[in-house]
Amino acid sequence: MSLDKDTVRNIANLARLEVREDELDHLAGELSNILQFVEQLAEVNTDGVAPMTSVCQMELPRRADEVTDGNYPEKVLANAPERIDGFFVVPKVVE
Amino acid sequence: MTELTKLSMAEARAGLRAKHFTAVALATAHLDRIAAHRDLNAFVTETPDLAIERAKAADARLAAGQAGAMEGLPIAVKDLFCTEGVRSTASSRILENFVPPYESTVSGKLKAAGAVMLGKTSLDEFAMGSSNMTSAFGPVINPWKRASDPSVQLVPGGSSGGSAAAVAARLALGATGTDTGGSIRQPASFCGLVGVKPTYGRCSRWGIVAFASSLDQAGPMTRTVRDAAIMLGSMVGYDPKDSTSANVPVPDFEAALTGDIRGLKIGIPQEYRPDGLSAEISKLWEDGIAMLRDAGATPVEISLPHTKYALATYYIVAPAECSSNLARYDGVRYGKRVEGKTLDEMYARSRAAGFGTEVRRRILIGTYVLSAGYYDAYYIKAQKVRRLIADDFAKAFETVDAILTPTAPSAAFGLGETDDNPITMWLNDIFTIPTSMAGLPGLSVPTGLSSEGLPLGLQLIGRPFDEETILKVAHVMERAAGFTAVPAGM
Fold this sequence. Notes:
heterodimer, A: mainly alpha, B: Amidase signature (AS) enzymes, eleven-stranded mixed beta sheet, 11 strands, about 15% strand, globular
């Protein structure tokens, strides 16, 4: 698979990663090379093979359905770039 | 007191308990050495005040006869482990000023065992790399030098490069690393250390900055096998806060070092002899096989037929998980923020400013292989091949007790000796990635030197949760190899 500039622009948007217009050509070439490298997997016969999502031979443990927020808002907010009155602040999202 | 930095962890433990020196003296000797070797750039953050405070507490517990398993032993902690009140950066600009209000389970266990943290070591950004060159805080220098030209600065390997350089340069008795595709074992090989990647699930991942969650594992990096066994024992254990933490008994790893490997069958996989494998690495491997035979073990030729697909599989699975894990860095709750007119613009600008080239590349690849229309062709396909790789190992372990391979295809390379193709760098992990894909324990033990006088390691791979056997075999190989070389001037 060879990626064009539009595809790279679209992926970057999906990843919420600002990419400059003049970086797109280089990135398209680089990402295409990587995809060509990984496409060697096509030659492996995987008919009837179940995808391996985890190497753990165990069931996912379940916890009690309880509120466990810790009750320490100061710790939660300690690294916030911007905060007001116990809330995280982001740019306005509704007009 | 510089001699204190030449002790092994086991020797320092004995010296502390026999009151030959104090934990404060031991910490001070290492802190002085860190200050004298800042040119290596091994640490992102030094924590001398905290170290002295903890060493004093260790001395008090030693005096009271309440010493923990690692009481008073100075260690370095990879800056991927969150440490309460101490900046934890993942060597990324995006976490440059992040001070966690909590302690990772593994670093907390080490602290509870009495270990004294000296500081946080550099790594490839978010543990993505094999040279430590992708760190936002500059490259780390390997204390080892080429015999022919000591002026060439070599990489320590990666991603746990700062930890490897620190332990090799005697700045710490041991260090924590993390390994996703080889990030403990390859730098251990490059720096003449023992590095253990435990079985997936053996060490809790809680509080470790996530890269690829189905692969990440913490482990020790030390100068001897015994030290690795000591440190591993204080890092492992069930943790309900990590849903993939294994609730299995914790063995006495040190007790496994019996020196007796008679009758063990050690697999030698033919697929780890690719065309173009350097003669030096081939010879190292042959020498290692001879050591095992001399010690009464039986080398057995085995086949792991899907080995050659492991790298491609990894570079679908790991970026996919990375793109998902790193979605959390959005400039809202913590980390770098660059303002934008809209919320989306703020996300995109913060992430572009915070992530380096390799991290951005992997996020983009991961986003692509997970995107609608490509998910089955890439991601599901890779997960299927991953199972075939794991099945190869399971089949081999029906007949052998451990597997011996080279750790890395070369000795440490120079800072400027890489090309621009990312795949060239990724080939460093060609021998370590299959173990990671299968979740198996693997370690690197130094057994020889290159013609340039640089350390070279061999990898031992074990059955799930059988770190004891690979430590036992490594211990025998360490003695047989008589690896006593140290970096020049150390």
